[in-house]
Design a protein that fits this description.
single chain; 527 residues; alpha+beta; Serine Threonine Protein Phosphatase 5, Tetratricopeptide repeat; two-stranded antiparallel sheet; 16 helices
Length: 527
């Protein structure tokens, strides 16, 4: 009889009820026995991937009920950068669950971003979800190694371990880029990251922040091992992980670390796969640009928080009539002006709603029977890999090779692709702008701005600013008017506001071992 191995499925309960451990370990022990790789695979599928959150039933802007924290994945990530601006229209009497109210303190880079504009506090669920997934993944990775001497289906065991390591790396990548300092080569070994736990057993201690470098080294180790485990294994769909996904994410991580040669090598591995860039010259109105069956999509999971964050009208489905009102967000004019004449993305990536430009890469979400759904909360596409490689080449002064990579993308984004004539620093800036144009609203821009700020070769200028306009409501005339703006300064001058604070429940439970820098109150600058 096979020895039965106990796996702890970590389902969160009160974070303050037990005397020791921390948010990484404070879980009820819902016990399940795993005896085979198949058991581990079922556990992986059931507990470790981001839950898909359908959006088709959202026929109102009241999408963000926050009484128990937000259910969607980190929608606030998309409103802090320079690609978003608020959009208001019509007379709205009830506003509590509307995106502008719920995410307003993130949009204003407020002292407490989890405070609505109506001064209601809500819980950060994402921190908890990330570490819940990681806790299960730690056990699966440990058990996969333990099973190697007795498991008959080694290919399945390799796939399970590879996927588990990829997911753990992905969640730590999100954690450190949301709640930690950006990776700076000169100071990463000292900069505050996030708590790092990769062991399967419960540790009787409180946790503090590991260094940014330590977190990144663990991410790299997991992705390298994932690529080895997944080599030669074809994923059943883009909802599962293959070696290409591991190498694609690894190219991103190396780019953030300024390890440009390694970035190029990982990108080459990813680009050797069967994926291809979608040719927008063949795109037709209403067709998805991003979908789980797209030839560009390497991996996808989670939901589509962008859709519900930028839902700038009450857009009904199943025959209901849209209502001309908005209290939400739209694509910023600054972003839209980045697209040159003839750039097919300007039409394919956006739609016009109440005279506002709304992100629209995934269009069929409104269909109840949509069979092309995609999770843009965690999405890896081939164009990103191409841009990762191009940027790394430009950083190494290999301008000709960088331009060759850019042409692979631009030839599919223009009827007649413009020549790239920039060199040196101007080429680096062009690639960064191209990254902004191609990857907008896929969770990259905020992270990119952070890493640009500390880049050792081409940092953002000290006078870099983001301004977010603010609107006020005039009840008598039932109209909105712009009354000023909030401003985020460069990272070197305002770095606490570039880092999302670790939630209070984790800080309180860890008895002060975890700390946040104090975010300043930010005043409205009136026009």
């Amino acid at each position: 009889m096979k020895k039965r191995v106990l796996i702890y499925i970590l389902s969160v309960f009160s974070l303050g009820c037990v005397s020791c451990g921390d948010f990484l370990d404070e879980y009820s022990q819902n016990q399940r026995y795993a005896e085979t790789a198949q058991d581990l695979d079922e556990l992986l599928r059931g507990e470790c991937f981001m839950a898909f959150q359908g959006s088709y039933s959202s026929n109102t802007q009241e999408t963000m009920s926050y009484s128990s924290g937000l259910t969607m994945n980190y929608p606030w990530l998309h409103v802090m950068d320079d690609d978003a601006e608020e959009f208001v229209s019509g007379g709205l009497t009830y506003t509590a669950n509307y995106p502008r109210n719920v995410l307003g303190s993130f949009y204003h880079w407020g002292a407490d971003p989890f405070l609505t504009l109506e001064n209601a506090q809500y819980k950060d669920n994402d921190w908890e979800k990330f570490y819940k997934h990681i806790g299960v993944l730690n056990s699966i990775i440990y058990m996969a190694d333990d099973f190697r001497s007795k498991e008959e289906d080694i290919e399945l065991l390799n796939r399970v371990e590879g996927e588990a390591r990829f997911l753990r790396a992905g969640y730590y990548f999100l954690l450190v880029n949301i709640y930690g300092m950006p990776y700076c080569k000169a100071t990463a070994s000292k900069d505050a990251g996030v708590p790092l736990k990769v062991t399967e057993h419960i540790e009787d201690k409180y946790f503090n922040r590991s260094s940014v470098e330590a977190v990144y080294l663990q991410i790299v180790a997991d992705l390298q091992r994932a690529a080895v485990c997944l080599k030669g294994i074809t994923p059943s769909s883009t909802l599962r992980v293959g070696a290409t996904a591991a190498n694609a994410l690894l190219s991103r991580v190396y780019l953030y670390m300024e390890n440009y040669e390694a970035c190029i090598a990982a990108a080459n591995e990813a680009m050797a796969g069967t994926y291809s860039v979608m040719d927008l010259n063949n795109w037709t109105s209403g067709q998805n640009v991003v979908s789980w069956t797209s030839p560009e999509t390497i991996f996808t999971q989670g939901g589509n928080s962008v859709i519900l964050t930028f839902l700038s009208y009450s857009s009904g489905w199943s025959g209901s009539t849209p209502i001309s009102q908005a209290l939400s967000f739209q694509a910023s004019e600054d972003l839209l002006q980045c697209y040159a004449a003839g750039d097919l993305r300007r039409t394919a990536f956006f739609k016009s709603s109440l005279h506002a430009a709304i992100p629209d890469k995934y269009k069929t979400w409104i269909d109840y029977s949509d069979t092309d759904e995609v999770g843009m909360d965690f999405l890896i596409r081939l164009p990103e890999v191409i841009l990762n490689k191009a940027e790394a080449l430009a950083m190494l002064n290999r301008d000709g090779e960088a331009k060759t990579e850019l042409e692979k993308l631009l030839s599919k984004r223009f009827a007649v692709a413009p020549s790239v004539t920039e060199t040196g620093e101007a080429l680096i800036d062009f690639i960064r702008d191209e990254r902004r144009r191609e990857l907008c609203f896929e969770g990259h821009r905020w992270f990119d701005l952070r890493r640009y700020a500390v880049n050792s070769i081409r940092p953002l200028p000290e006078n870099f600013r983001i301004r977010h306009q603010n609107n006020d409501y005039e009840a008598n005339s039932m109209t909105w008017y712009e009354n000023g703006y909030y401003e985020l300064n460069a990272y070197t001058q305002d770095h606490a506001a570039w880092i999302v604070p670790i939630p209070n429940y984790a800080i309180e439970f860890n008895r002060g071992e975890l700390q946040n820098e104090i975010r300043p109150n930010r005043e409205l600058i009136r026009n």
